[in-house]
Amino acid sequence: MKTIFKGKKISGILGILPKQVSYFDDEIDNYAFPPKQTMRLKKVMGFEKHRLAAENSTASDFCVYGLQYLLKTKKLKKDEIGAIIVVTLSPDFFVPHISNIIHGECGLDESVLCMDIAQGCCGYLVGLMQSFMLLDVLKNKKVILFNTDVLSHKVSKQDRNDFPLIGDATSITIVEKDNNAEDIYFELYTDGNKRETLMIPAGAFAMPSTEQTAQMHTSEDGNCRSLDHLHMEGAEVFNFVQGRIPSLIDTMFKGIGITNEDIDYYLFHQPNKFMLKKLADKMNVPHEKMFMNIVENFGNPSGASIPINIVYNMGNTLQTQLYKCCLSAFGAGLAWGAIVMRLGNMDFCDMIESDL
Question: Is the pTM of this model over 0.85?
C-alpha cells in the first residue's frame, strides 16, 4: 500500500512502562550456554535490561491506566474522543476486545468507535494508517491509538534467542485533524510467504494450547521453549530487514523528492542494536540520527517500539520543536513499511510507570 494523508497530525504521545526491571546479567544462568559466550551478546546486541509486566497484568490494564492518567491530568477530554484503536498481539480474551474493555472501564460515550487490530512489529504504522483514515469520518473528534503488548508472558525464560529481546510496554497516541499539517507519506508491504519466521505456533484455533503444546523442549539452536512460546528466526529476520528497508526508503525518498539529509531523525522499530547499526550503515545514515537505545533500556516492545523511541529520545522537545522524521517498522508478517512526516508542536510527549 502506498498513499499520502493530508491534514492529519499527532498531537500527543504517552508511554506507559511496567516498573519491574530485569537485568541481562541476572538472567544468564537461565540459558544452557556457557556464561562467557552469553555475555558476548550483551555488547553486540545491546542487551542490558528490559521491562516486564507482572504475571497477572494484562495489556488492557496498561491501556486503562494510561487513558485514565490522560483524563485525570486533563491532557485529554472524554468528549474529544471519536474512536479508540488498539493494536496488539496480547489480547486479554478472544472476546471481548481490549478496546471494549477500555471503553467500559473509562466510561466513554456510546458513539465512540472501538476497534482492535492484531499486528506486531509494524503495529504503529498500521495503527496510524487506520487512525488517519478514521479522521475523515469523525468530524472534529480525535482518534486515540493504543499500541500495547505483554509478550514476555509468551516467551520462554530459558530461550536466549528471544527472551532478552522482549520488553513490555504500552503507548497512547492522540491523532487529530490539522488543515495546516504537511502531507504524510505512507508505504506498507507484506510477504506472507515468510509468515512463520516470527510465530507463536500454539494457542489459537489452528493449534489450541494443551498439555502437549506446553511441554518444554530443546531446539536445534540450543534454546528451550514450547509450542506456546514466541520464537523468531533471527538470521532470517536480519536478512529480510537488510534487504527490504534500505531499498524501500531509497525509493520512497526519490518519489517524495527528498534525500537523507532532509530527515532530522530516523525513528525505527528496534529489534536490537546490531541490526540497527547495520541498517544505518547500509543506508548511509549517521548513527546520531537513528536512536538505538530502546532494547538496552526497555527491551523490544513490539508495536509500541516506535512511540516509546519517540518519547524516550525526544520527549518534551516535541512540544516546542518541529522535526522531519522517517518512521519505519519491520517484522511479524513478514511486513515492512515507512512513514515520512513532521513531528512536533505536540500537547505532550511523556513517559509514566505503572505498578502493573
Answer: yes
